[in-house]
């Protein structure tokens, strides 16, 4: 499997894992054409509480580990769960509590990225 297909598979699993725990406002930011970007892709979503934010991070780690045999290179933010980052190097997942996401306004920060909004399941 080539790198692009591997990354797409990783993205699909991450989005599924977020949807499994009812993560909201899921967006995929393609940063591959942005100079000096810290990753190729960001996946961003919101949760309603620190419990849900931690559950979302746990769901992502578990699904990716079980189905793709990959572990994150780095995870941070689980102590207070206002903003949890799960780093798979090419793909970085940002899971925010709503007010923290609004405060940091990541969408504006990475406005040059190609953004794909994932429609929430009804």
Give the helices and strands, then pairings.
Layout: H1 3-20, E1 24-30, E2 41-47, H2 50-68, E3 74-76, E4 83-87, E5 91-97, H3 98-104, H4 106-109, E6 114-117
Parallel strand pairs: 2-5
Antiparallel strand pairs: 1-2, 1-6, 3-4, 4-5
Helix pairs in contact: 1-2
Which descriptors apply to this entry?
4 helices; six-stranded mixed beta sheet; alpha+beta; about 120 residues; 6 strands
Protein described:
Helix content is 39%, strand content 27%. With 122 residues, the chain is of the alpha+beta class. Helix 1 crosses helix 2 (50-68).
Short description:
This protein is an alpha+beta fold and 122 residues long. The protein contains four helices and six strands.
Strand content: 25-35%
Kindly report how far apart the N and C termini lie.
33 Å
Helix/strand-derived category reads alpha+beta
**What overall form do the CA principal axes indicate?**
globular
Helical segment count: 4
Residue stretches low in confidence (pLDDT < 50, at least 5 long) are: none
What's the helix-strand series?
HEEHEEEHHE
The beta-strand count equals 6
Pfam family, one: RsfS
Keywords: Cytoplasm, Repressor, Translation regulation
Subcellular location: Cytoplasm
Protein name: Ribosomal silencing factor RsfS
